[in-house]
Hints:
This protein is α/β, with parallel strands linked by helices. Among the domains are: 4-145 and 271-343, Periplasmic binding protein-like II (D-Maltodextrin-Binding Protein, domain 2, 3-Layer(aba) Sandwich), CATH 3.40.190.10; 358-451, no CATH class. It is 47% helix and 13% strand. It is built from 19 helices and twelve strands. The strands form two sheets. Strands 1, 2, 3, 4, 7, 8, 9, 10, 11 and 12 form a ten-stranded mixed sheet that branches. Helix 15 (359-371) packs parallel to helix 19 (420-446) and helix 16 (374-386) packs parallel to helix 19.
Amino acid sequence: MPSTPGIACRLLLAAGLAALVTNPCHAQRELIIVSPHWEGIQYEFGRAFAEHYRQRTGQSVQVRWRDLGGTSQIEKALDATYQATPATSGIDVFFGGGIDPYESQKTKGQLHPYKLPDTLLAAIPPAIGGFVIVDPDYAFYGAALSSFGILENRRVTRLVGLPAVETWEDLGHPDLDGWVSSADPRKSGSVHMIYEIILQAYGWDKGWQVIHRMSGNVKSFLQSSSAPTKEVSVGDAAYAVSIDINGMTQQAFIGKEDVRFSIPRGVSVINPDGIAILKGAPNLDVAQAFLDFVMGPEGQALWMRPTGTPGGAVRFGISRMGILPRDYEGDLSQLLVPLNPFAIDYPFRYNTPVGSRRWGVVNSLIGMGVIDVHTHLRRAWAAIHRAPPARRPALLAEFDRPLASEAEALELAAVWRSDKIRARRLENEWMRRSVQRYQALARQAALPPDN
Length: 451
C-alpha cells in the first residue's frame, strides 16, 4: 500500500504545486498565484501588475496562475502540499475565495505574514460589518468586498406567475419547485459562504429549515459558482443564489429590466475577499510587491472602474467593490457597483472564527444531508406538499431538522481537521440517516387521510 507521503507527493505534482527550481534571476521576475477568480480578474490584474512592476523596477515579471478549481479544492491541495513539503507549496500568493479560508490557512501556519507600507495601511479600515480587512497579525488582507444575493429572471417570473422572492427564506416557497438554482457549496467558496450566512443570519435550526426547503426547489446542484446565474440568464431557472460578481455580470449583460440581482435585507453581509502570501513563497519580494499593488489605489481601481476609463480595466469590467473608503466619496453612478459598503447598517455581525472553524463540517452536513441524497429529498418535499394539510406541519418539522446541533458541529470541527477516517465514517452515517428519513417522510406523506 502506498505511504501517505507518497500519495501526498503525487497529489502535489498532479495539482501543479511542485516547488519550482529556478535561478535567482528568474525568481525575481516570476509570480505564481493560486486563485478561484475567473479569467477576467486574472487577466486584468496580471496585465496591470506586470506593467506596474516594470515601471517601478525596470524588470519584466511573468504572472502564472495555477488553476486548482474552487476555494475548497484549493484549500485541500494546499493542505496536502504542506503536509508533503512543509517548507513551501511552490506558490507565492493565494488570491480570492472569501475570508474564512484565510483564517483557516493562518491557523495551520501556512501563510507568510506581511505588513503593508504604513502609507497604504493608513487608508484601509481594519474591518467592515464584523469581517476583518486587515488581519491583526498581517497574515492576510481583504482585497475586495463581495455581497451575496439572489439573481431573478424577471421575464420567467412574470410569464410563469411565480411568487416574489426578497429573502433566502422565500426560496423555499412550494410554488418554486424546480425553479431555484444553486451550486454545490463543497465546490465553491462563495456558495458555501451563502449557506453559512443563512445559518448565522437565521440561527442554526431555522437556518437548516431555510436550506432544506430551498433545496427542495433546486433542480440539481451545479459544479461551479457561475453556473446557476447562467441557468437563470437563459431561463432554465427563475432564481439563483449567487455572489454579486456573477449576478451583476448577468444583469449588466442582459439588462436590469429582465434580470435583476438583489441583496436580501437583514440576512446578508458584505464580505472581504482575501489575499495572502503563502509560507515559503519562492518569489517573496515579487509577492510583496503584488500585495502592495492590489491593496493600493491602482489595484483597487481595477475592481471598480468601468472598462476604458482612467484606472479601469482594459478588457473585462470586474464589477466588485473596493476596500478604500475614499473611493466612494465621489459620484457613485460612475462605479461599476454604485453602492457604498461603508454606509450600510449591518443588522447582524457575521462570526468569522465560527464560520472558518466549522467550514468542513457544514460542507459535509450539506453534502450528506442535501446534495448527495437530493433525489430522496426532492421526493419527500413533493410528497409533503401533496399530503393532507393537517399532516404537513409534523412532516415539515421532521424534514427541516438538522443532522447535528450547532454545538455538535463545532465540536466535530476538530475531528474534520485531525481524523479523516472518523470524519468519513460520520459522513456515511449522515447519508444513511438522511436517505432513511426522506424515504420515511415520503411514505408517511402518501398515507391515505385518517377516517
